[in-house]
Amino acid sequence: MDVIRKIGHNEIVEITTPFLITWHDGKSRLCGDFRALNNYTKADRYSIPRIPHALDKLAKAKYITKMDIMKGFHQNGVKPNSIKLLRKICRMGIYKYTRMPFGIKNTPAHFQRMMDTIFQEGMLQGWIFVYIDDIIIYSETWKDHVQYIDKVLSKFTLINLKISLKKCNFGQQELLALEHKVSGLSLEIDQNKVAAVLQKPVPKIIKEMQSFLGFASYYRNNINNFSHITSSLYQLCSKDVVF
């Protein structure tokens, strides 16, 4: 898949500087610094699904399948008039993105809308949940589950959307999904995430506190009185407070 392409020396371009981020799997991802572009981009207000609502459904399912879209954003092309805005420079030259990159303001909303459109029927029938590039299929019977998996894979084949098999789990009665351990009998927080919180150093600056609160807020539904407990910490993030 041709994600980036080198630009000729005779082209006059505006450029951005790339940087690497470390993903949760320990691998690095190359991103462009698109902050300036994002400042001038009109926000796409398309809503991302609420995970707690999906977890309630998964906790009642007997069979669960999780699929991951392979490099999901990069499977989307970029319109020619937008490519000129997606350029970056490195020691090997100047390159332009030909596929949807990480770091663009509306990328998650665009991808979510696309996936919701593709699987609208299954979502209305109540057997599939899509969170950006994560697809969760759930059912109470094995017969239904096999049929649902077949429908999803057939749709992928039809639109030429690829999945990462090594990140997929088919027909499980218990698995890790959406940062939780789910089964038809229970719903638990992924203990690896709990350990990650406990190992985080005490925040020393506002950005570190905001990062910690954002991380902890993901599990607010599992913590009684979360708003009350964290209220003083949120106050420390105010502009008129000395941290």
Automatic annotation (TrEMBL):
SUPFAM superfamilies: DNA/RNA polymerases (SSF56672)
Superkingdom of source: Eukaryota
UniProt protein name: Reverse transcriptase domain-containing protein
Signal peptide feature range: none
Alphabetized Pfam families for the sequence: RVT_1
Gene3D superfamilies reported for this sequence: 3.30.70.270
Reverse transcriptase domain sequence ranges: 1-217
